[in-house]
């Protein structure tokens, strides 16, 4: 049995830089453009049809998220070539990065899987993770899973983010006592 270190809500999001297909380098957890918060989505990779579906559905919420000052970035351990192939099945316009390393997966406290065969993929990969990082680089929301079936339902997630991002609600970061 291995020991897993999980990030805590209310802690600083680690500094992780990654490349996108357009040649840009992005920093996970740091909002860009006009946004003040960032939604970081970790997905399994091009081999996962549930990930493709989730990312495509997330695109439909992009406008609502932008309205509350939240941008989106997604990343997997796939290679540049694998992401290029995957883009053919994606209808997303938010940045998607590639090359998440095993060390970065561990830094994020993600569950990591070994491929069942070369047909699945050619590298270990992270199971789904989702982080909402607030304006000061602190983790506001964490959701990690050990399989592709358990992810936040997008309408519930976005509705909740709309509510907690409203300063009038004064909603604190919850679940900060992680042991």
UniProtKB/TrEMBL annotation:
Residues 7-163 form the Thioredoxin domain. It comes from the Bacteria. Keywords: Oxidoreductase, Peroxidase. GO terms for molecular function: peroxidase activity. Pfam families: AhpC-TSA. This is Thioredoxin peroxidase. It comes from Shewanella sediminis (strain HAW-EB3).
């Amino acid at each position: 049995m291995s020991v897993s270190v999980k990030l805590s809500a209310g802690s600083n999001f680690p500094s992780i830089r990654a490349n996108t297909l357009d040649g840009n380098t992005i920093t996970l957890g740091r909002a860009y453009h006009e946004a003040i918060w960032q939604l970081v989505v970790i997905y399994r990779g091009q081999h996962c049809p549930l990930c493709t579906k989730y990312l495509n559905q997330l695109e439909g919420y992009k406008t609502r998220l932008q309205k509350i000052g939240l941008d989106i970035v997604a990343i997997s351990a796939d290679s540049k070539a694998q992401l290029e192939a995957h883009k053919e099945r994606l209808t997303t316009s938010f940045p998607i990065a590639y090359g998440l390393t095993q060390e970065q997966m561990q830094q994020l406290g993600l569950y990591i899987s070994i491929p069942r065969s070369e047909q699945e993929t050619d590298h270990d990969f992270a199971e789904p993770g989702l982080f909402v990082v607030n304006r000061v680089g602190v983790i506001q929301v964490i959701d990690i899973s050990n399989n592709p079936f358990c992810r936040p339902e997008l309408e519930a997630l976005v509705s909740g983010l709309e509510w907690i991002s409203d300063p009038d609600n004064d909603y604190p970061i919850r679940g900060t006592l992680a042991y």
